[in-house]
């Protein structure tokens, strides 16, 4: 092969390699993320210190390019998901990010409520309006509202829940107008929209948003949870344990490194999450001694069972502990023997 032909081939291969990085496929790839100590990001005013640590675990999730797609196929602990399995139909990048961050905020509020009630402390909420989670393409809100907007009033009426907001909209007919008082990027504005019938064949009309309650939890002592850009609800269990541990004198860590995962409901139920296998790997790499996993009341192929299989496969000594609810997790931790150096 001549030098000129060799040079051209090199250039072509370089272009193809570059294209493989920037051309995205209709798939997502997840891989092991990190295990992050919670004490530095959660602060209960006047709270107690701990000798060990609680850790949240994450996965790294991103759109697949040709290069990452091939690597995921070759890797045992990377998963490939079709686009529709991760994002709702017609959901934009902005809407997806907004939804993930809102789920994180909701997870934090649930964790605070569970921990404070367990500690015998009062919990209250300040209702702030309706949060726009998604906007339906082709409906009146499309182009006028975006995910993350907060609706404070409708026709100058305040509401105490998103259910009341939906009920009011439902009392209107197609073509009728409503005026929303909205905050967008901390700026207040009024938006007037004419209701439109949904294309699904329903006789009901609406403005085309998915609304959820926007409320702020109020507790004493105050607590702050700084999660930056971490999204999703899967850290709820570990948030609640860290908060409760700072509220109570007994150190539940017993000097150990404790990781885990699971959603948390206001009643303390621990729920299933995705990517448990990758989170086991992240926790093991971070040196966790114990991993708390959702047991799902003994359901087949529960998070706990998948965690046990993965732990055995990678040869970790980390103890995998099944939990169905917050009380079970606390009961287990209260029985831990203090770690000796």
From TrEMBL:
EC numbers on record: 3.4.21.53
SUPFAM superfamilies associated with the record: PDZ domain-like (SSF50156), Ribosomal protein S5 domain 2-like (SSF54211)
GO biological process: protein catabolic process; proteolysis
Matches recorded under Gene3D superfamilies: 3.30.230.10
Span of domain PDZ: 100-186
The entry's keywords: Hydrolase, Membrane, Protease, Serine protease, Transmembrane, Transmembrane helix
SMART domains: PDZ
Spans through the membrane: 7-29
Reactions mediated catalytically: Hydrolysis of proteins in presence of ATP
Matches recorded under InterPro entries: Lon_proteolytic (IPR008269), Lon_Prtase (IPR027065), PDZ (IPR001478), PDZ_sf (IPR036034), Ribosomal_Su5_D2-typ_SF (IPR020568), Ribsml_uS5_D2-typ_fold_subgr (IPR014721)
Active-site residues (renumbered): 234, 279
Pfam families: PDZ_2
GO molecular function: ATP binding; ATP-dependent peptidase activity; serine-type endopeptidase activity
Domain called Lon proteolytic: residue spans: 229-336
Family classification: Belongs to the peptidase S16 family.
Name this polypeptide is given: endopeptidase La
Lineage: Bacteria, Bacillati, Bacillota, Bacilli, Bacillales
């Amino acid at each position: 092969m001549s030098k000129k032909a060799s040079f051209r081939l090199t250039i072509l291969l370089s272009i193809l390699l570059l294209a493989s990085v920037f051309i995205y496929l209709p798939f997502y790839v997840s891989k092991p993320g990190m295990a992050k100590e919670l004490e530095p990001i959660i602060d209960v005013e006047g709270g107690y210190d701990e000798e060990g640590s609680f850790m949240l675990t994450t996965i790294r999730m991103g759109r697949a390019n040709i290069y990452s797609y091939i690597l995921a196929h070759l890797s045992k602990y990377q998963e490939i998901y079709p686009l529709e399995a991760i994002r709702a139909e017609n959901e934009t990048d902005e809407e997806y990010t907004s939804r993930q961050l809102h789920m994180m905020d909701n997870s934090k509020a649930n964790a605070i409520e569970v921990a404070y009630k367990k500690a015998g402390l009062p919990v209250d909420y300040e209702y702030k309006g309706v949060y726009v989670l998604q906007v339906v393409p082709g409906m009146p809100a499309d182009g006028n509202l975006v995910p993350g907007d907060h609706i404070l009033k409708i026709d100058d009426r305040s509401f105490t829940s998103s259910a009341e907001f939906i009920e009011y909209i439902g009392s209107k007919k197609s073509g009728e107008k409503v005026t929303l008082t909205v905050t967008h990027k901390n700026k207040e504005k009024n938006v007037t929209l004419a209701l439109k019938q949904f294309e699904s064949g329903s006789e009901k009309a609406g403005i085309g948003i998915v609304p959820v309650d926007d409320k702020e939890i109020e507790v004493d002592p105050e607590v702050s949870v700084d999660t930056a850009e971490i999204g999703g609800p899967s850290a709820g269990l570990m948030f609640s344990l860290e908060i409760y541990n700072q509220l109570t004198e007994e150190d539940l860590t017993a000097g150990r490194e404790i990781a885990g995962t699971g959603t948390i409901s206001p009643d303390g139920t621990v729920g299933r999450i995705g990517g448990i296998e990758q989170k086991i790997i992240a926790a093991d790499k971070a040196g966790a001694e114990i991993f708390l996993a959702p047991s799902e009341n003994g359901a087949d192929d529960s998070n706990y069972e998948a965690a046990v299989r993965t732990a055995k496969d990678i040869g970790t000594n980390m103890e995998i502990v099944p939990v169905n609810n917050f009380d079970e997790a606390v009961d287990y931790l209260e029985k831990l023997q203090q770690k000796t150096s």
